[in-house]
Amino acid sequence: MTRVVRLAAGSLVIAAAVLALKLGAWWVTGSVALLADALESVVNVAAAGAALVAVQFSALPADANHPYGHTKAEYFSAVLEGALIIVAALAILHSAWGAYVAPRPPEDAVVGLLISAAATAINAGWAILLRREGRRLRSPALLADARHLMADVVTSLGVLVGVGAVAVTGRLWLDPLIAALTAVNILWSGWYLMRESVGGLMDEAVEPGLLARIRGAVSASAEGAIEAHDLRTRHAGRLTFIEFHLVVPGSLSVDDAHVICDRIEAALKAEIEGATITIHVEPEGKAKHHGVLVL
């Protein structure tokens, strides 16, 4: 079992435990804001299950039907998680409206808040771990889960403050208001997550900073060549695909051109973990006099 799969399995266990705690907090208090918080945790459980399946599938090696591997499976998990977040937000808004029309004071607020605070602390610790490991392992599914959990933490903190204010002031309208604000925050989180994941599925180019590093590595390691042009990049999960045309002097032998390509590939792989490189060698007559000029 890989590190990514173990973390995804851990997320499922943590999500189930946090859901149980938040449902307990809602059951004790009857607060619609705490119910909203629990509904988001239902999404966490479903999303964690989808992420576990996705990372297991993405770990499969390339085969005849999937020559580029299965790493994009994690993006499907992230898109599904974003969709589930939006569904949860709509359910929360429905519950908030019902509580606004027929408000009721929370019961045993102190006990409920303590239970919810414990669940929030667990979520926060796990989100920090997932974000660190997701970046290190370059896993879209883990990063999506971390971002969702951190949004859940922020939401839960707002809910705790809101329910506490209701208990102290007796202003019952604060409970559905906090629930509605929670839904808006969740909607934003879900939209951002889906937008980022769809970008991966649509083969968007790498971010400008990484592109500059790629260009710099090619320029510094391509001694003997003339230029590199038609540079194309894309992400696929933890892999970064890099393709370009390398122009060399027409008198250069195939062996010598291959040595240059090997040197460039080694430099790119040292600079970018998970780089998969394709280089098309062309004679100097194909130079376009733009792109990456060799130092």
Automatic annotation (TrEMBL):
Keyword Transport found: yes
GO molecular function: cadmium ion transmembrane transporter activity; ferrous iron transmembrane transporter activity; zinc efflux antiporter activity
Domain of life of the native organism: Bacteria
TM ranges: 7-29, 41-63, 75-97, 109-129, 149-170, 176-194
Keywords tagged on the record: Cell membrane, Membrane, Transmembrane, Transmembrane helix, Transport
Domain Cation efflux protein cytoplasmic: 212-284
Subcellular location: Cell membrane
Cross-referenced Pfam families: Cation_efflux, ZT_dimer
Membrane topology summary: Multi-pass membrane protein
Cation efflux protein transmembrane domain segment(s): 11-202
Keyword check for Cell membrane: yes
GO biological process terms on file: intracellular zinc ion homeostasis
InterPro entries: Cation_efflux, Cation_efflux_CTD, Cation_efflux_CTD_sf, Cation_efflux_TM, Cation_efflux_TMD_sf, CDF_Transporter
Any one GO CC term of the record: plasma membrane
Main location: membrane
Entry-linked Gene3D superfamilies: Cation efflux protein transmembrane domain, Cation efflux protein, cytoplasmic domain
Family: Belongs to the cation diffusion facilitator (CDF) transporter (TC 2.A.4) family.
Protein name: Protein p34
Annotated organism of origin: Dankookia rubra
Biological classification of the source: Bacteria, Pseudomonadati, Pseudomonadota, Alphaproteobacteria, Acetobacterales
